[in-house]
Design goal:
This is Isoleucine--tRNA ligase. Its cofactor is Zn(2+). Strands 8, 9, 10, 11, 12, 13, 14, 15, 16 and 17 form a 10-stranded mixed beta sheet that branches. A 4-stranded parallel beta sheet has the order 2-25-26-19, with helices on both faces. The chain is elongated. It is α/β, with parallel strands linked by helices. The longest helix has 27 residues, at about 720-745. It has 30 helices and 33 strands. Among the domains are: about 15-20 and about 650-810, Isoleucyl-tRNA Synthetase, Domain 1; about 215-410, Alpha-Beta Complex (Isoleucyl-tRNA Synthetase, domain 2), CATH 3.90.740.10; about 810-944, Orthogonal Bundle (Isoleucyl-tRNA Synthetase, Domain 1), CATH 1.10.730.20.
Length: about 950
């Protein structure tokens, strides 16, 4: 008996150099180095000459410490947006940058001073600034390498920094524009002040935490009033900031509220209230006051409207102890009856509304608190006492004077510095402001600019709009040393700032050559010019708010490089509605009359797997450096783009494992395509008109994916795009199309139309998938491209393929949607047969399909066998059957019948067919396989 021939060498099994394992942590650094040496970024710019530019202006991260996972999210999302725009046909020039000035870096340098016992105030300012500059430069270099390790493409050699000399000059020039147009002024206003850092803070530098405050209810004796009945009574106020009592200058009430003149009849034990005394309180809050003050019984003697009390004058509760000024009563619309007594004590130096009310009525704005949070030397009773520790002393003084009615505690949300974590105070200090509502109409123009800007998601419009509508004048001065000074001179005789364009020009020129240090190193006459006496002017030494600096970045990044202005896109976290988006909008509107961006895209924050904020104390921090060391940067990039970045994102060990599994499926898709394209030549190409329906359906799906991707390119809304691409690879391709076409690709003659059409589609799939994945899986896509075309031409120099409109076929898509529904019914029956134990491979099966009249016409029996991956299929038409009957049928109820296929197993394709054994010279092959072997065209497979 002759020996059975082994036909395995005649089968076209996949062959590729693209390995199953990504081994990304080892491969990625090598690719980065090759890209640097090859100058891929420079090649891309050269190839993009003449294209429309796309400018995503980079919001500068702070040059302080290693990158955290929030940085990774932000830069990866920016990189994907830039790369997709580039591959869609634009010139995506991305200039990364850094914010280098400000308090956090000062704080770090001062920490080093404290450790070594040095006094910061004894260090010359230029030396201190040099140390800050060196610190920022170090961390810029570290972060630059880390961003590039994430695969972020950009002009890293032409990056910007706020501490670059041209940047500092541009910032000074932008300040000068506000000076010259009159919007910049110096005024005494209450600002959020940090006694620890000894400087004003911007809203974006503030966070809110629970804080326990001492509350006091205080009597203000009425000394005169248009309502004679209340003279000799006491108006009662309630406050959570007893330290502001030395700054009290007035009382406010609601004009429409009902107030009661109350006589106290009896009190509880320990109460500070006195039987027989008369007090005034809002009637709505009388029950709460009685409980808090221990008032047992009382009589309401008379009711008044708040408006009736206007013109009443009280004595300060510490009168006779250095507080002998009158305390007038005014009406104010912002007074509420939510808590307290319905009367608000007004300290104009310690609150925005208090300040406005005081200025309206010409009140004194006392400066009671110094830079460090201690009461100034001229404050009676409390000089030198820190406001954080003042509650007991003030309560004791009020008790001794007879003014304290009640004392308590309240836990409430309170502003804190996000750096020192210390509670803040409102403090009136001389500061430099940009006017929001003057002739420049900055607020109105900003609101109009918001209406004209595209926001993704759109709710960002309302968020920033409400902030702009309600914000006070912009305080831009800080009392620190590391930053760009506010280069202004104030005339001593008039107290007015010098608004001279020639002085501004000299400042800008000096800063451009020497940096902002020139302000400290040069005599004032250098800037004032020869015609002015320096002694007649005060040189301002405050620095500008770092948010003004970064908000000016459009001027020294876009304008200075000749790039299109405004930028196409600003992209940051949603907290930047009150940060960089906010300051950039105001700065640009104030100097140019419009927003510096056409669109604003925001993303959420990163939480752990349980939805908690990350913290070292909880041990739940995911560091990007650890992720790329364990999994590779592509896994981190994939996590960003399969997440819904509009909301907060979660990350942790289990989520990263899930991303690695998603990545494995995508990689295996690319690997199978590459392996099945082994030996591909353009001569195999089949026009789509000659392709089988199944191939034309795949082309339609490519058209749909391309439309989804191009829509995201235009709208910046990438939500769901890459999950859809993953589903396409896993469900449409691997689990369906590849599964069906493996037989043709492995076993058909290489000149067969079916095999050539399938490989033509695989050629399209490879080009589409590698380019669509390249913006996200930057390293893997490069590897998959090089595995086919060699490493000479990078995937990152390619554009997205142009998908012909003719590939769209909605009717065909509907037809194959129904075919797949029916196929799932067959698959369920085959799985049931496997579980029963009598079927191992679907090719051992024959299937009987009773179908409705419409469904029976979808495919021939031979095509059903091919699609169901069985060896035989029969179709019977059931005139009573409806298409819906098969859609959700369970295996038990399904009319689909599975049986053993008749015939023998082909040794080459493994189908079970009656014709096996009937082929001359090939007794173990089916007719198709015998023809393929006899053709001699499978010799290549044999050679391999």
């Amino acid at each position: 008996m002759s020996e059975t021939r082994d036909y395995r060498d005649t089968v076209f099994l996949p062959a590729t150099s693209f390995p199953m394992r990504g081994d990304l942590p080892k491969k990625e650094p090598g690719m980065l180095e090759r890209w640097r040496k090859a100058g891929i970024w420079q090649q891309l710019r050269a190839r993009s000459q003449g294209r429309d530019k796309f400018i995503l202006h980079d919001g500068p991260p702070y040059a302080n410490g290693h990158l955290h996972i929030g940085h990774a999210l932000n830069k990866i999302l920016k990189d994907v947006v830039n790369r997709t725009r580039q591959m869609a046909g634009y010139d995506g020039l991305y200039v990364p940058g850094w914010d280098c000035h400000g308090l956090p870096i000062e704080w770090k340098i001062e920490e080093e001073y404290r450790k070594s016992g040095r006094d910061k105030d004894a260090v010359p300012v230029l030396q201190f600034r040099a140390e800050c500059r060196a610190y920022a430069a170090h961390w810029m270099a570290v972060q630059s390498e880390e961003f590039q390790r994430l695969g972020v493409f950009g002009a890293w050699e032409d990056r910007y920094a706020t501490m670059d000399f041209p940047s500092e000059a541009a910032i000074a020039g932008e300040i000068g524009k506000f000076l010259l147009n009159g919007a910049l002024y110096r005024g005494l206003r209450p600002v959020m002040w940090s006694p620890v850092e000894k400087t004003a803070l911007a809203e974006a530098e503030i966070e809110y935490h629970d804080h326990t405050s001492t509350t006091v209810t205080v009597r203000f004796p009425v000394v005169r009033s248009p309502v004679s009945d209340i003279v000799g009574a006491a108006i009662v106020i309630w406050t959570t900031t007893p330290w502001t009592m030395p700054g009290n200058r007035a009382i406010a009430c609601g004009p429409e509220f009902d107030y009661a003149l109350v006589r106290i009849d009896s009190v509880a034990e320990g109460s500070r209230a006195r039987p027989g005394e008369r007090i005034l309180v809002a009637i709505a809050l009388l029950p709460q006051l009685c409980e808090a003050a221990g008032i047992a019984t009382h009589h309401v003697l008379r009711l008044f409207k708040g408006a009736d009390l206007y013109g009443t004058v009280c004595a300060h509760p510490l009168r006779g102890r250095g507080y002998d000024h009158d305390v007038p009563v005014f009406t104010a619309a912002y007074v509420t009856t939510d808590a307290g007594t319905g009367f608000v004590h007004i300290a104009p130096g310690h609150g925005e509304e208090d300040f406005d009310l005081g200025r309206k009525h010409g009140l004194e704005i006392p400066e009671t608190v110094g830079d460090d949070g201690s009461f100034n030397a001229w404050v009676p009773l409390f000089a030198g006492l820190h406001v954080y520790k003042a509650a007991d002393a003030i309560c004791a003084a009020l008790q001794e004077a007879g003014g304290l009615l009640a004392r308590g505690k309240l836990v409430h949300s309170y502003p804190h510095s996000w750096r020192s974590k210390a509670p803040l105070i409102f403090r009136a200090t001389p500061q430099w402001f940009i006017r929001m509502d003057g002739p420049e109409q900055i607020r109105a123009r900003a609101l109009q600019a918001i209406a004209e800007t595209d926001f993704v998601p759109d709710q960002g419009r309302n968020r920033i709009g409400s902030m702009i509508a309600a914000r006070p004048d912009w305080c831009i001065s800080r009392q620190r040393a590391w930053g760009v000074p506010i280069p202004v001179f104030v005339e001593r005789a008039s107290g007015q700032p010098l608004r001279d364009p020639e002085v501004v020009a000299r400042v800008v020129a000096a800063f451009r050559e020497e940096g902002a240090d020139a302000w400290y190193a040069s005599p004032p006459g250098r800037f004032l010019g020869p015609d002015r006496d320096p002694a007649a002017y005060e040189q301002v030494m405050d620095i500008v708010d770092v948010w003004f600096e970064s908000g000016s970045s459009h001027a020294f990044v876009l304008d200075a490089r000749g790039l299109p202005w405004p930028a196409d896109l600003y992209l940051e976290g949603s907290d930047q509605h009150r940060g960089w988006f906010h300051s950039s909008l105001l700065e640009s509107v104030g100097t140019r009359g419009r927003a510096p961006f056409e669109a604003v895209l925001t993303h959420g924050f990163v939480l752990d797997e349980q939805g908690r904020k990350m913290s070292k104390s909880l041990g739940n921090v995911t560091a990007p450096q650890e992720v790329w060391d364990q999994y590779g940067a592509d896994i981190l990039r994939l996590w960003v783009m399969v997440s819904d970045t509009r909301d907060d994102l979660r990350i942790g060990p289990e989520i990263l494992k899930q991303q690695a599994e998603l990545y494995r499926r995508l990689r295996n898709t690319l690997r199978w395509i590459l392996g099945s394209l082994d030996g591909w030549t353009p001569g195999e190409h089949v026009p789509e008109a000659e392709m089988p329906e199944l191939e034309r359906w795949v082309l339609h799906r490519l058209w749909e994916m391309d439309a989804q991707i191009r829509s995201a390119v235009d709208t910046y809304d990438w939500t769901g795009v890459y999950p859809a691409l993953h589903a396409f690879c896993a469900t449409d391709l691997s689990a369906f199309y590849f599964d069906i076409r493996k037989d043709a690709i492995y076993c058909d003659r290489p000149d067969s139309l079916r095999r050539r059409a399938a490989r033509t589609v695989l050629d399209h799939l490879h080009r589409c998938l590698t380019t669509w994945l390249a913006p996200v899986l930057v390293f893997t896509a490069e590897e998959a491209w090089a595995a086919r075309f060699g490493g000479e031409c990078s995937i990152h120099l390619q554009d997205f393929p142009d998908i012909p409109q003719r590939w769209r076929d909605d009717a065909l898509a509907e037809r194959w949607k129904r075919i797949r529904e029916l196929r799932r019914g067959v698959t369920l029956q085959l799985e049931a047969a496997r579980q029963a134990g009598w079927l191992k491979s679907s090719l051992q099966a024959a299937v009987l399909l009773p179908l409705s009249a419409d469904d029976a016409s979808l495919l021939t029996p031979e095509e059903w066998a091919e699609v169901a991956i069985v060896s035989k299929a029969d179709v019977t038409e059931d005139p009573d059957r409806q298409p819906a009957d098969d859609a959700q049928a369970s295996p038990e109820r399904s009319p689909i019948a599975i049986s053993a296929a008749p015939g023998d197993k082909c040794a080459r394709c493994w189908k079970v067919l009656p014709e096996v054994g009937q082929q001359p010279g090939h007794p173990t092959l089916c007719r198709r396989c015998a023809d393929a072997v006899d053709s001699g065209l499978v010799c290549r497979a044999a050679a391999e």
